[in-house]
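In the current project phase, the collection of sequences with tokenised folds has grown. One resulting record follows, to show the layout:
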Amino acid sequence: MGRAERVVLAYSGGVDTTVCIPYLKNEFGVKEVITLAADLGQGEDLEPIRQKALKAGASESLVVDAKEALVKHYAIPSIKANALYENRYPLSTALARPLIAKLLVDAARQCNADAVAHGCTGKGNDQVRFDVAIGGLNPDLKVLAPAREWGMSRQEAIAYGEQFGLTFPVKKSSPYSIDYNILGRSIEAGPLEDPWTEPLADVFAMTKGIAETPDEPEYVEIGFNTGEPSSLNGQEMTTTALVEALNAIAGKHGFGRIDMVENRLVGIKSREIYEAPALLLLIAAHRDLESLTLTADVTQYKRDVEETYSRLVYNGLWFSPLKSALDAFINYTQEYVTGTVRIKLHKGNAMIVGRQAENALYSEALATYGADDTFDHRAAEGFIYVWGLPTRIWSQRMGND
């Protein structure tokens, strides 16, 4: 790989990505570093981060508002897919990675850069997500990963930065590694590395502890239009506004926490804590509405697709051919997934208590055991005879008792 002249660096303002700026220049021979920080709805003022990059030696410091893009182009397809990695994690952090990769590739093209860079280490999933996504968007673009190569501890990285005039204000150190966007928070490291250790209250920010939640339940009605979340309690709104509202409502009732040991792509198990109130609630509501509007065979087949889809996203294959093919199948299934789901929130639980859809396949006249029953009970005998015929023949031939 040849030397890069101009590099666009994914920038968070933390120690590692800040140290990456002088490191790229002095160790990798990069002449110009352009940083890119993405506003993903983390509720953080990015202007100080932009200025910090310039002070660290960046020739240009870009800030991109990508919150709407994250919801529209990444969260909504994932909700349609009911995507839960290992049937639990709604991919709140993983979904942001292909978006950031796309922003890097777009910025590299606009700035005429010949490489992009990130601050991922060699132990996590994000390095794979960035590298593979960037390769899928522009296979000719070089990808640099200084933190994967420098082998420095956090203190050594700080000392390296101080050689070039960088300062890192002393503040109360958190033992946790936290990633935060509009879709949720992921928390790991520190005491959480022991899977037997219960998370303390200071781990959580989006969800209340059960003792702090309201004593009275709250009902919410979530509307969907062809699989996309479109209204809350009868009020039409953008999915982004809906996500923000549900984060507050569901979080207030203590819903949205996940504590799991997950299988990382790099081959190790990792204990992770997640908060994703809105995303978990939307997936649960969407899946329930599908039970009303999809045929049994489509529902059953889609479950296998959903599992594959979740693995693809988790493993960094958002821009892969298989992911695109699965999207086409999923979008076809969503044509009639329009309706409303009613959910009761109380003390950490979200109980679906009602659902309705104009194109519902459910028929009360067929399902009822009352006087209005229209099901032809006489047809059952012939159906059972035909359905059980292979089993009876097998039993006769094998002489089973």
